[in-house]
Amino acid sequence: MGLTKVCGTNYPSSICFIVVNEFCERFSYYGMKAVLTLYFLTYLHWDKDLSTAVYHAFSSLCYFTPILGAVIADSWLGKFKTIVYLSVVYVIGHVVKSVGAIPTVGTNNVHISLSMLGLVLIAFGTGGIKPCVAAFGGDQFDEEQGSQRQKFFSIFYMSINAGSLLSTVITPILRGDVQCFGGDCYALAFGVPAALMVVALVVFIAGSGLYKRNPPQGNILLEVCNCIGFAIKNRWKRSKYDSSRKHWLDWAEEKYSVRLIQEVKMVLRVLVLYIPLPMFWALFDQQGSRWTLQATRMNMAFVRHFLPRDQMLNALLILVFVPVFELIVYPLAGFCRINVTPLRKMATGMVFAALAFGAAALVEVNVVRSVVDPAPAGECLLQVLNLAHGDVRLKLPGSDAFQQPIRYLQDPPAYETLPASGEELKIQVAFNGKLSECNFTSEQQEAYSLLLYSDSTGIHCTQVTDHITKNEDGNPLLRFLNTYPDPVNLTVGAVTFQVTSGFSVSPNQTVDRGSYPDVSCCFPAERCSLLDLELLDFGASYTVVLVEESGSVVAHKMEDVKANDVHIAWQIPQYVLLTVGEVMFSVTGLEFSYSQAPPNMKSVLQAGWLLTVAFGNVIVLIVAEGAELEQWKEFLLFAGLLLLVFIIFSVMAYFYTYVDLDQLDEKHRHDSGREEDEEDEEEANDVRLNRKSTRL
């Protein structure tokens, strides 16, 4: 087999094709997923809940289908043919998905049908080849190349994250910066990943002459299940009369070979170790959900355009940390005579992930200080904005809210909580020594502003519904209140506001974060002015009141929801801790799953490893939906659960005995030799009996 020098170590030449194939495949997968949610929202016009549900259903399917690919590879086709055939399915899925993103192809129902069909094919393709590619790469090494194989899995994992990093940069650019069919070019954003998957398939086939291939050995999974079932059945029937068997699987010796029984024992020991592992993935996968939502409520000043988004930051850190651990940390630990076994690495990775969520909880406690909590059930929130030229006092029946006088154009005080009965409430307003009444009607868990203004007939009030939830993309929200008798048009960056006359309020709109010293404000008859809105900061919600002072238009900016005051750089420690945990847990787990699997069940065990990711997502849904905790408490709950799992896993790992496949082969040869000796002895006895019977 040809060899090539990689990092001073002899590697099989074939792994170059496998690593490039994995890079292109991961670029294809993550590039498509990077714009998938936006595609649902803006192209298929689904709501947020449906888009999120389909996104997570697709992600889960991608991690449940590996078991199917593993069974096909180990039982019938072998890893090479399985990868090739399912890659073709993968490519077809991408092509169908890209065609569904072309506006001229049918109606919206056709787009939905093609998109769903494409996603299902992609899920079967990517899920089916996931366990096979890693195991096939491990197959290229001889048994004496254990250290090279361990480094291969690190390089393999780096290729995954390199593909992820580049794709999450490039495909959003293809979608937004390239225009086609009169809008965002989703067809191109999905088409480029399709082309990369074609490249992945071509590269993999190009190396076919160099690959070391282990042939499939029949329906091994069915044979394993039958072996387990026979052992249980046999033990149940005969355990009363025979207690000499050391292990319950030994009861299958009457029908199955000693080697198969030993291999089943190996697989079951590893699968039992996998039982606690989904909890790690339950924490890890929240980078793309809970941590992303946390980031939208943080201040991204100075770094927004060059600090990587969540997926990119993790992938970038992986590319840095994997060589650091392989070339520095692990060798240094060995130099210090620290026995760093795979299971110890994985347990330590759990601790780092728990610490990451502890750090995330600390950040969250500070982040929520700028968030307006919604009113509890049966109540509402109210703030008062005084536009009358003088102080006002309010008296609400059955409430002590708004005890202090409210001055003209004073920034509204914090929201007050009031009962929300749905019925009309009479609010007394004292202004210039006169009492007036305002009608106020509220719905539970809503937020309102009460606008007070005066004219020659007295004081008047207008009720406006507020938006107190911070913007999901982190940008500020802005609205204008027009006190002029004429309508007005305003342009803030690329956003236009149209406000009708007479104390009217425009709807909230999202604007880009930044300073706006020259905002165009135009009235009828082309009477325009320039307003200085100063800085509109991340996460804030503003009401700008347009009033006349000294014959000119003046903008009074009021902050309804505070700007994000915790810098996003405070998320870096939690990402660093979680990535360290990932390097120690995930990279090691890939190699461990391969090294501890019998040759004919390596893909199956890789699929079992990937299933822990799927079940981790299920845990997130259960805890998030069932616990209903504040976010920082939920982070601490996950950290505590993972520490508990760490203790359980450490105890299980302490009693785990690593399997040496060479020793298994030697034991098999020894057992086979013993069985042959017993058969020879039986044949000799038969010969002697035959001779005796002849003499008789």
Automatic annotation (TrEMBL):
InterPro entries: MFS_trans_sf, POT_fam, PTR2_symporter_CS. PROSITE patterns: PTR2_1, PTR2_2. The keyword Transmembrane helix applies. GO terms for cellular component: membrane. It is found in: Membrane. It is a multi-pass membrane protein. GO terms for molecular function: dipeptide transmembrane transporter activity; symporter activity. The chain crosses the membrane at residues 27-46, 52-72, 84-106, 112-133, 154-174, 186-211, 266-284, 312-333, 345-363, 604-623, 635-656. It comes from the Eukaryota. Residues 674-684 have a biased composition (Acidic residues). It holds the Pfam family PTR2. Keywords: Membrane, Peptide transport, Protein transport, Symport, Transmembrane, Transmembrane helix, Transport. GO terms for biological process: protein transport; response to yeast. Residues 669-696 are annotated as: Disordered. Belongs to the major facilitator superfamily. Proton-dependent oligopeptide transporter (POT/PTR) (TC 2.A.17) family. This is Solute carrier family 15 member 2. It comes from Cyclopterus lumpus.
